[in-house]
């Protein structure tokens, strides 16, 4: 799966323009919502025909929109919203909600009429959103989205043959390093341990490396040394590889790094703390995503980006994902919401996002733009894509995050045996999966 994903991603991002269908579907409730909110006012007069080249959907009279996004993306969202309002006269309000939290929040806020009209989340949450009937298909702009974006991105934001997302960016995380503190990126975690012996000075906030040590998204590399989440390309909920021998060995090594690299508890290492130390010039290395590029550049730090160091002699695979806009199926203004999702996901919008935040475009032409191709930082992320693993998108992925994060925290904070912690987490995941199936 990894080899297929890598070759497809690199080809889709940097070589060819591709179009694609997808996997996934909707339940009866979602189909009803989609029918209720289907576009009815467009130039062709037939909503099912979608948009012709250059044609826009007609928004509802008096429409105004609420958009959810994370604080890291706020500068881009506010910039693109301003352009949208100037062109269409539709007010757009921004509310800060982390991408990973949006499906959970929309589950309650959507039916209550409190949810954002347009939301954005990584593709691993799509199955859960579809099952709950929370988002509308990308129907009116379907063909444009398919032909303009990489096939990987289109497939990731589709479910049971239906396209739901308006692809915006592809992402993983990699190793940022401050060239003033360490000239070359380490190839192994063992090298970082050696560097930390002479560099670390906690009293002066000097640390060799930080990452969000309590967040499974960033801890997956320690599972990837022989383990996996779900089998069959992430689709088999009954085949869990989080506690096999390779995973256990990786998490044991993870636990050893508290003394070797980062003598802090999981709750004490946050995104903001890491960013503050890196921009102030005391943190030598940070494992982070492309959303951080803009902040680090603005801080004047001379940094590079490289693939993650190997773990126990094996390449460290990172999670990778696709972020896209989605239209809330309970939106009062579904056509205006579709219009914004399209406007904020075009080639021009994705290049603006890249310029402001460093987000790597899903749009093929945008990815081939010289502004992206000539960026050495982006090339570092592409190298990490070569050893990345797409997050599973089945609804049961939601049952993984909390138990496995707790297992990592137990190993790091309390020195719990790695196998015992992982076995416990896997049992919780199995119980949740079986409970969901029984319902």
From TrEMBL:
What is a single molecular function from GO for this protein? carbohydrate transmembrane transporter activity
Residue spans of biased composition, Low complexity class: 30-51
| Residue span of region Disordered | 30-53
According to Swiss-Prot or TrEMBL, what is its membrane topology? Lipid-anchor
Top-rank taxon: Bacteria
A GO-annotated cellular component? ATP-binding cassette (ABC) transporter complex, substrate-binding subunit-containing
Location(s), subcellular: Cell membrane
Mind telling me which CDD domains this protein's record contains? PBP2_Maltose_binding_like (cd13586)
Q: Which residues form the signal peptide?
A: 1-18
Chief place of localization:
membrane
Per UniProt, the keywords (alphabetical) are: Cell membrane, Lipoprotein, Membrane, Signal, Sugar transport, Transport
Q: Which InterPro entries match?
A: Maltose/Cyclodextrin-bd (IPR006060), SBP (IPR006059)
Biological process per Gene Ontology, one example term: maltose transport
* Family to which this protein belongs: Belongs to the bacterial solute-binding protein 1 family.
UniProt protein name: Maltodextrin-binding protein
Species of provenance: Paenibacillus arenilitoris
